[in-house]
Design goal:
By secondary structure, the protein is an alpha/beta fold. The protein has helices at residues 41-52, 67-77, 98-109, 128-144, 157-166, 188-195, 217-227, 231-240, 253-262, 270-280; strands spanning 10-12, 18-20, 22-25, 57-59, 85-90, 114-119, 147-153, 173-177, 198-202, 245-248. The chain contains 10 helices and 10 strands. The strands form 2 sheets. Strands 3-4-5-6-7-8-9-10 form an 8-stranded parallel barrel, surrounded by 4 helices. Strands 1-2 form a two-stranded antiparallel sheet. It is globular, with a radius of gyration of 18 Å. The N and C termini lie far apart (43 Å).
Length: 299
């Protein structure tokens, strides 16, 4: 049922594995609040639409409650497991081992390994030692081969430093909210480069969706007209041109098709990347984890 594989570029991670630079996320927009609910056919259908249009990098999490739907979409796609790059995340429930959570996720997904397994956030940890101990449990999954790559999500520099103090295997990825209106001042992005940790962006389209209107509107429009693309495609390209993985959660087949068809086919100039970054700093917007940050906290 899948179309020809589009030319989505891959990025090599620090562990030698490769990750597609554009992926489809089954994020909070498709979260199921009750895990006892029957399979949500709309989530399965949306995911199959993404797969049909060449999105084989699929990102989920146990906290979204829809790993079973992702697994159903994989099974119904008719494609072999090797076609896909599958990510899921653990919420680190109190009193539960990583092994228990991971085994439950594998069963829900209907696979025997994932390509990337992440700690969903650091905010549950009551001490640095607790975070370090949990990371050691994640390392065991990498060693076993059932998680090809391992990483974290929503970690600030202080959390990364804590993990790296004791890590035998460093995180390959940190998945964070990243867009021109949230560039994480204070050196977080630079720290990833220093430590060889790949940055993965969720909500990369924020400046043209939930945070619009804003100072970037005219910049995006001008650059989009230059390349005969849309502002959304410029927003995705801005992320990718920095060596950052971009995730989209759109359920529009038309948008999914045009993004995967156009985004790999053009590249912003360094001057355009820098202009978007500069103008983006004129506005601050955070869409997630707002209960953990003050309104003016740009970390």
């Amino acid at each position: 049922m899948a179309s020809e594989t589009p030319a989505v570029p891959n990025l090599k991670l620090s562990d030698g594995n490769e990750i597609p630079l554009l992926g489809y996320g089954l994020g909070t927009a498709r979260a199921k609040r009750s895990k006892t609910e029957a399979l949500d056919e709309k989530i399965i259908s949306d995911t199959l639409t993404a797969i049909k249009n060449g999105y084989y990098h699929l990102d989920g999490a146990e906290s979204y409650g829809n790993e079973a739907e992702l697994g159903a979409a994989l099974a119904r796609s008719g494609l072999s497991r090797s076609h896909f790059f599958i990510t899921t995340k653990t919420s680190c429930h109190p009193g539960e081992t990583i092994e228990t959570a991971f085994s439950r996720s594998l069963a829900a997904l209907g696979v025997d390994y994932v390509d990337l397994y992440l700690i969903h956030s650091p905010f549950w940890a009551s001490s640095p030692a607790e975070l370090q101990a949990k990371w050691a449990e994640v390392e065991a999954l990498k060693t076993s081969g059932r998680a090809r790559s391992i990483g974290v999500s929503n970690f600030l520099r202080e959390h990364l430093e804590t993990v790296l103090e004791t890590a035998a295997i460093p995180p390959a990825v940190n998945q964070i909210e990243y867009h021109p209106y949230l560039q994480h001042e204070g050196g977080l992005v630079e720290y990833h480069k220093e430590k060889g940790i790949t940055l993965e962006a969720y909500s990369p389209l924020t400046a043209v969706t939930k945070a619009a209107p804003g100072p970037l509107d005219g910049v995006y429009k001008r650059i989009a007209e230059k390349y005969a693309v849309t502002p959304g495609e410029v927003a995705l390209r801005w992320v990718i041109d920095q060596g950052v993985v971009a995730l989209t959660t759109s359920s529009s087949e038309e948008r999914l098709k045009t993004w995967i068809g156009r985004v790999p086919g053009f590249k912003l100039t360094q001057e355009e990347v820098e202009e978007i970054a500069r103008v983006g700093r004129e506005k601050h917007f955070r869409g997630f984890w707002t209960n953990k940050f003050a309104a003016d906290d740009r970390r």
